[in-house]
């Protein structure tokens, strides 16, 4: 806020001088710097003790500055220059509230011979003076204390006693109210309405007038910014407009504290690291800390998506999208943000945050499998530890701790601590995906990886199958820890190029596109007699999109998306975490990119409305659509449970699968419990109980289906119930 206000004067061409007693970082260029001792040569910096505020010294300093610097106007560093501040009179001060009573001193200009200035200098010469403008009861208390030879020092008196309270008193006492500018001059947004600066621009501008030359932004707003807005102006707000207008980067200097209250962004001042390449947040409770870290070190940000028991979420938790949106909203490139949804996806970080999480609200033991993969030698972990949680003994094996602050929550001390990992934490590197993939590639293949994706090539024959999968699924859900279809492709003796995503990325990282461009341009695909791109759902999208890198290759896609571009498929309500990805470029729209393929074999359930919508966008003459009614989006799983995935896939990949072959194999669905259930429920949903009974009898005479058996019983009971007879 101070940077913004100072720079506003510079940008208006208004000469602005900053007095200080110590060096101050990040002062905007063009601000004149002067030593405060030129005005008051003292080390006695008075403050309002009850609020721990040096505003008391600032109230005194401005009076002496005006006396020693004719023509100078004092402005607080939370005053924004809206227009050049030129006036016909040396007396510059304004009413703070409607009614023409209270005068504020955030903007104050007085001639050295001003009777108002003389009166205030005289009054402040006695730090034990009893203010005539406080409540009578308080005056009596001060008088009693003075009579007992225990006068009350100004530092123990109410806030503002040498500020607005004193200025207001002497303005009216000396009958100078006519010299005071109206409220709209400096305080059109009064203190009770101060949070309007967090509102849209139009709402604030409607309250300004041509008489408004400066705006008091109210330093107390820093507390709200720190507590509610991560120390940064809300996007789209008036304050956000101001920082943008003046080229201020809030994330480079977020609001870190207000008085004794240290906000999360202020934690970076306690971190003893010179370089941070990766910041990690466990559980998503340190947004402002992450933004501040990125602003200071330009680091990547890793979000560890685990629940209160330390278990990884199978799909991105809701907080991940909210967190990511907040980071992007503050100018962080989405490519710099990653989600770790599995053990294998965790990357060691220089700085890790675990605020209000494990060791405080949740049990610290649930971090025992996570921390060894996140901490490296010299890493620092900022963590909240509740007394009695056992966190300190737990952390001893990782390093040493240092207390930052202590608070009480529900009467129990909670210590904010920084752990410095002073020894290398052992990792089972042999079990990582990188190690496994390198072994699978062997000396004749290759393994390439980036932060979010990897390419594994295993050579075997002149047929190449390009598959798309998720590292998390491979490492956490499959016993062999192999990419999707690996064993099946290996049995056929085919070569394989496995493209792996570290999360639900939809492969929209430019690095992935660059790899396919390189493989195409280097003649990699030309080495093979037959090339087939193969994938399901997100992988199906990628197979249909990146087949364009190898024109003429076939694609086999199961329940794919065509794109998640909201302007193209506004009806797609799933996969919100990827809605903000860029789906432009030659590999962006799979329905268009797949025109370059030989044959596109598309398997989908026409009754899955969203899948059918995507399938309808594949309109090329090279598309063979194979419908699998009532088998759902997870069609591959259904086909596998029916025992026909292998022959369907084999025929599709080797180019021999016909429609007749597929629908002959699909007859197996008649004995598949999911299909039976969906067919039965669909008949009921259409209001055709007789048809549902027919389906139910057919199923139950050939086996059992618990769902249908229970529903048939309910139908029988409903039919046997006595019917009401009209009177």
UniProtKB/TrEMBL annotation:
This is Alpha 1,4-glycosyltransferase domain-containing protein. Signal peptide: none annotated. The keyword Signal does not apply. The keyword Transferase applies. InterPro entries: A1-4-GlycosylTfrase_dom (IPR007652), AB_hydrolase_fold (IPR029058), Glycosyltransf_32 (IPR051981), Nucleotide-diphossugar_trans (IPR029044). GO terms for cellular component: membrane. Residues 178-223 form the Alpha 1,4-glycosyltransferase domain.
